[in-house]
Design goal:
By secondary structure, this protein is an alpha/beta fold. Helix content is about 40%, strand content about 15%. The chain is built from five helices and five strands.
Amino acid sequence: MNESDFLIPSLETITSDDERFMREALREAKKAYLAEEVPIGAVIVFDGHIIARGHNQVELLNDATAHAEMLSITAAENAMGNWRLSGCTLYCTLEPCPMCAGALLLSRVDTLVWGAPDLRHGANGSWVNLFDKPHPTHTISIRQGVLREWCERPLKQFFQKRRMENSRNKEINDFTTS
């Protein structure tokens, strides 16, 4: 994976705090991309400052729970010295899965801002909606589609490259076994 494959919007094009912090989440996604992980990034903001960052590390850690959101939640809890992340906003380049949605509710994150929908695993309406039913102890404010195209592009590139590699590997295996 090449660094030049992954584009991040320039600061001159950013028009809101949501876009500014999503740009930082994209910088985390780039780290995952360069490490040949699914390019998803997250940052957690408290009082206008980033207190935690995370990017997918599923392959590196051999851990299906090592999603960008989960890693950033743990880092934010450490930074805050509390598992309750009241007053925090999580910015993520992809709609959270059910595991991450549950962690957001349990950790009491106030606001979720995500970029691209996840049709296969998204828990904010793309596949299921874990946030549509009132929760007995916590409600999360949600904004979606922030820098959507910028968040979708690296995911599409990543999986296109994976499909090409898998196709090439299949051709090589077919050739060597015939």
